[in-house]
Amino acid sequence: MEARRIANAEREAREQAIVRSLSEFLGELDKLDHAEQSAARSEETARAKAAEQIARIERELNERVERIRQASEDKAAVIRRAAGAAAQVMRANGETVASIAAQSGQTQARVRELLRLADSEDHNSAAGDQEPGQPSRPAEQDGQPSGGVATADGHQAAVSVEAGPVAEALSA
């Protein structure tokens, strides 16, 4: 009997150890499941935040690129008009479109295009139809436009003292 009681006690101790181990095992599996779910939620949150940041950065980049493009277009338009004004002065001084083209290395079509731009700017300024954001004509002093040149036919042409924009527009 004693042996049976000892055997039952040992069996009961083993079963209790198994139950404790199983309980600990199941508890750890629950912790693991919770940790995996938490990690998945954290990953999802991080991905959502990253996607928002990427969208914001792309939006800011697109806005910046558009501002740069617009500034470049505006600068090119100013340079083209300055080149056209310089070509108008050359025309007023007796140069032909062909000679201006030959001297500048440009095609006659390009020189005519620049002259048309300058003519359209002259008409817009004379009519007061200047577009917002466009550079205004220089102010007149003593009947002469500031920074302008009187042409042979009596018209006024605004020219830049700086040859850079003219050369830049003619080479574009």
Side by side, the strands of the main sheet go 1-2
> N- to C-terminal separation?
112 Å
Spans where pLDDT lies below 50 across 5 or more residues = 129-166
* Overall structural domain count: 1
The DSSP helix count reads 4
Mean pLDDT: 81
The helix-and-strand class reads mainly alpha
Keywords: Coiled coil
Biased composition (Basic and acidic residues): 115-124
Coiled coil: 40-74
Region (Disordered): 115-172
What features would you describe in this structure?
The chain is mainly alpha-helical and 172 residues long. The chain has one domain (1-125). Helices cover 74% and strands 6% of the residues. It is built from four helices and four strands. The protein has helices at 2-92, 97-104, 108-127, 164-171; strands at 140-141, 144-145, 148-150, 156-158. The protein has a two-stranded antiparallel sheet. The chain has a two-stranded antiparallel sheet with strand order 3-4. It is rod-shaped. The termini are far apart. Keywords: Coiled coil. Residues 115-172 are annotated as: Disordered. Residues 115-124 have a biased composition (Basic and acidic residues). Residues 40-74 form a coiled coil.
